[in-house]
Amino acid sequence: MKYIAFLISLIITLVLAVALAISIGQTPPLGRLLDPYHGVWQNTYSEDYSKDNEFKIAGLSAQVEIKYDTNLIPHIFAQNEEDLFRAQGFVTAQHRLWQMEFQTMAAAGRVSEIVGSAALDFDRMQRRKGLGFGAEEGLQYIRETDPETFSLMEAYADGVNQYINSLSYRNLPVEYKILNYRPEPWTVYKTALFLKYMADMLVGDKDLEYTNLRKLIGEELMAELYPDFPEDNDPVIEPNRRWDFTPMPINRPDNIIYPDEEILIDPMPAPEEGVGSNNWAVAGSKTQNGHPILANDPHLNLNLPSLWYIIQLSTPEYSVKGASLPGALGVISGFNENIAWGVTNATRDVRDWYSINFRNEDRTEYLYNDQWINSSLRLEEIKIKGESSFIDSVVYTHYGPVVYDPSFRGESQLKNFALKWTAHLGSNEQSTFLNLNRAKNHEDYLAALETFVAPAQNFVFASKTGDIALKVQGSFPLKWDQQGKYLMDGSDPIYEWHDFIPSEQNPATKNPSRGFVSSANQHSVDPSYPYFVFDDSFEHFRNRRLNSRLSEMSKITVEDMMDLQFDNFYLHASEALPLMLDYLLEDTLILEDGNVRRIVQDLQSWSFHTHPELTAPPIFEMWWKNLEEKVWGKWRKPQVPIVIPNKYQTTKLLTNSPDHEVFDKPNSAVVETARELVRESFEAMLQDYEEWKSREDELTWGNYKRTTIQHLVPNFRSFSVENVSTGGGRGILNATSERHGASWRMVVEMGEQPNAFGIYPGGQSGNPGSRYYTNLIGKWARGEYLDVSLRPQSEERDLLYTVTLKQN
Prior knowledge:
Layout: H1 2-19, H2 21-24, H3 30-33, E1 53-57, E2 64-69, E3 74-77, H4 81-108, H5 112-115, H6 120-129, H7 131-145, H8 147-165, H9 174-179, H10 188-201, H11 207-217, H12 219-225, E4 277-282, E5 293-301, E6 303-304, E7 309-314, E8 319-324, E9 333-336, E10 339-345, E11 351-355, E12 365-368, E13 371-374, E14 376-382, E15 390-396, E16 402-404, E17 417-421, H13 429-438, H14 442-449, E18 457-463, E19 468-473, E20 488-489, E21 508-510, E22 516-519, H15 542-552, H16 558-565, H17 571-584, H18 594-604, H19 616-632, H20 647-656, H21 674-695, H22 701-705, E23 707-711, E24 721-724, E25 740-742, E26 745-750, E27 754-759, H23 777-782, E28 786-787, E29 799-807
Helix pairs in contact: 4-8, 4-10, 7-10, 11-12, 13-14, 17-20, 19-21
């Protein structure tokens, strides 16, 4: 029945693909596509695991054995690393080839080759951000400084290509057939490019939006509404540290000048507020068994095929297991016999924007330090399916590429804005993960992090010897106080990055007295840290909830850590809603309406948890959105992007300054306060609620947010899973919103033998017809886990089948 259902959904998808040809390019050849022996019908069958398989692979120095468990998790046993990573490339391509190629084509700005001109604007942005340029710089750096890693990357690419070369049309993943193209060879450049894609996914900035807002409200109000540190700062590194280093000197210039005109742009997408990642480790002194426990749950887009792929990689020297990224070598978040590690995004401002003054329209020279210096031109040919190529002229300055100019997203302003970004630097993030995979102790862990530049990450650590640690790692520009918040004058050297903070001075901690380390995308440090630390998207709720729970817990078990990853308590609502109700109920007449009374009672009795079946969370969420619009909507102007204060700062204003000027409406005959806006927003919420009620049978949190795990091609809805019933949301430890959430959950107890559990929302196979495409979603939505402990080569329990790779 599953295959019949899949076939029906596949046909629906095909019909949609043809009907939406304007979005996905030219119609595929239907005769070949529907050929029952070679076309999409072949993809209606799950992989055949009824017998073991044997493949001849060129380049192997010894036989490799791959044992798949009953969840299709491969355990690769090789005699050396070159064979190991050649096998990893082959195995990953078997299950995720289309995803690997599609994501790197997206990073390179090549989606128009697949789907047509609808992706042209996206491709131009990808090229103009310089992801390809950054990958080229990174690959050259690896080739020159780390030939061993480069050689292993070549082995991985060779493994992918040997699988590609074995494919006939019959065996192509279904997306190739529907979109009518074939895979091209994998290269080491694509691995480097994929790692830059991850850097892009995990970075954001609002410099241009802040610039507009500063002009609108002034410096004094900006400082009040956007403070460097929150009132309730609960940083990654425990507060009140004594920093045992002498900081590099940096002084703020006296003659800072900011732009005095509005900037009209179509801004880049940025990470959502309240959606990020969590990781932590607790010392053995706080656990029931006396062993450290490490947890990690990176929150990213929820996509199919899933971003992660669970794998075990074993040689005689080490065995490592955890979540890999299809396209990159090794395990990214995982553990071996000696250590465990995990990552969260260390939100720091590592992208800055510079206004460039070109000498003339050909833009071959620009003003810098009272001189005209040469720019360079990079011609980007963007191939478009069914059409002629588009040639984009991207000018590069010494800062980086000019992203916005009169021809692109600049609303025809005669402005040129260049991007400076650490992802453009030559770097070797791949070696970081390879060395973590091999690491035996804290010293190895620190050494592995030395080559990691971007995206900045909080690396959590635990070892079987009892150590726990956390380091904030990346290349962080040495900036003067407030540098990089706003657009800067590219002609003046005072706005340059002066240096980089030494890696050994990045915030770090080991075995703190409180018995745990943690991060949830909040501020890295408190004000005692001697360098300027800024980002526009620091978290203010998940971190406080996490640290509060870890502080009060004792005799912690693995199950306790699983429950904490799935924690649905909404700290923001617990701080904002009681005050909003107090302001609302100052007018007691409002309760004379029976419907209003029931809604208020529902809110008053809410425990602030966000389980999917509850009815209060969507009421609060609609009320809060209307309140934010009442307070900050007056600042919004068409085509002038700005940033509004976050939920934390807005709640603080409601609490501490209800009569603040920001609550007053312009052009109003009376002076409004927070109380009036709370009541007005409640009335607006009632209208939204009634409208929603008319469309929805069950007015629950799950039906309100409708969590969807979407195929990478949004048009392929039949390959997606919609309205997954699960709790959580933005700013909640279980940060599962409409399209974002825990893309991987892992808990590892580091005893003599690691005891490990993991889950992600999808399945190991990228084939929509496979029973392993979505089989883990239900478990993930319920907060359940797989046992992902290390598997010895001799283990026969729960064995699905075995693959042997032999020398050709």
